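Form 12-C: Joint structure prediction
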Amino acid sequence: MTRPSPGRRDPDRASSLRLAALFFRVGAQNELQYRLNFVVQLLQSILGVAAGLVGLAVVFAHTNNLGGWSRPQLLVVMGIFLMMNGITQAFIQPSMNLLIADIQKGTLDFPLTKPVDAQVLVSVRSVDIWQAADSLIGLIIVIVGLVQQDVAVHLVDVVSFVLLMLMGTVTIYCFWLMLASTAFWLIKTDEMQELFQGLYRTGQYPVGIYPGWLRYGITFVVPLAFAITVPAEALTGRLEHLALVGAAGLTLALLVISRLLWRRGLKRYGGASS
Amino acid sequence: MITAEPASAPTAETEPGRFREFRTNASWLWRYYTQFMRLAIITQFQYRAANYFYMIGMIAEPVVYLVVWSTIARTNGGSIGGFTAGTFAAYYIVWTLVRNINIVFTPFGWEQRIKDGELSGLLLQPIHPIHRDLAFFAGWKVIVIILWLPIAAALTLIFHPSLSPTVWQCVVFFLALWGAYLIRSMFLWALGLISLWTTRVSAIFQAYFMAELLLSGRLVPLTLMPKLVRSLAGVLPFQSTFGFPITALTGPITDTQLWHGLLTQLLWIVVGGLIVKLMWRRGIRRFASVGG
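Section 2 - Result
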């Protein structure tokens, strides 16, 4: 573990990644002390999944396909929805909530004075590793759905899926960073989490079932389509190559936009000492 | 319009025995409620943006259900279980108002109340602290309803609900909203009080909310649920906080069912009040013993 030397203000990207890895490891080790929390979290995840499955069962008691998606294929969507939820809650949301709290209290000074890129630091400061229980259960549900569907999955599909999941994680991170950055202007933003959680629910079903305006909303404003539906398309034999390009383009665009917004917000930040 | 119900309700409530002199003083209680409601209105009016964020996040939930069920209705030749796309729209748009009204003090808030010592402060007050929450959240509803109106208008334009209630249905709906508010206040308060016994409450809360989701009519109108779920819902309080108020306005519902629904709500308010009373007494004894 290389410690960044105090004088360096702009370390290269590799050391930023190492820093992120180090923070995640320390955070995880910290949480691993509290094993019982895992059991409680797992129990909660199972309850959540049970409710989701009952919901699907009620839907399919009345119909045999929803917008062209069969029951096992909707299981795949639900599994990916849970996997992304686990990733978000474990690795993205805790740091973002901390960031919002710091902006409100004026204690963002501390991470800002550190000799690394402030965006990297505020994005990796906190980890809630047990929340990843959702991802584990989600993966199981994806596999169950894949076994039940009558579409063959090839290696290239799995590779696309993994790539799309990685890009999806980045887009969700960017979206969260933009949400958190609004705290520079709006101060009281405790409701950010509620807002995100609420909007995230729409990802539970494939975007195709939503009316046009909402479909555009959850594709481009809240980037859930590329984070959940498109990876699911890869595994259910619906993926068009253009979607891969679109996902890459959106990811890049969001990285730039969220960075710019963060920078602008930072300029507004007064801090506790000023 | 907000003041009518909650102000008359607390007479069914209880205060700690040592401050009995306040119990009969209805005008004092009335002042207490109106002051706290005014405080809530002033406080929450400052946080319009935050309130809107919260509300938009919340609206997503019924929109998902609505889209799913109207899609199913359409692919099944226009209606499913007696619901058309239009009546589903009515159900889930009324849902948004009911949901806004039955937002109450969250059970997750109790951990902070205990940890930060806020509870000790509440104990010093010469009145049962549930009055404070009831009054504050009731006042907040004024802001909530004002912010909700444009959202309801937008949803109406987008989803074209078909809704034609009678005057009597509107009256029952208004009463049922506040019945739902009181029931949910009581039960979630009681649920939160579990925090006085154990710190690992989150799984218990989650189980409660899952039961509510499936058995209240929140996820889907109960008539679309299997028979087992419906009969289970019949003996639990959840239906009184979602399904009944919504159906009271959207129908189809008979006059007998309206009366039955209101009386059931009354029953659950009393039961909820008794549970709160019992748990509060025992919990406080426990809390005091921890603090020395």
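Section 3 - Comments
Chain A has twelve helices and no strands. Chain A has one domain: 15-268.
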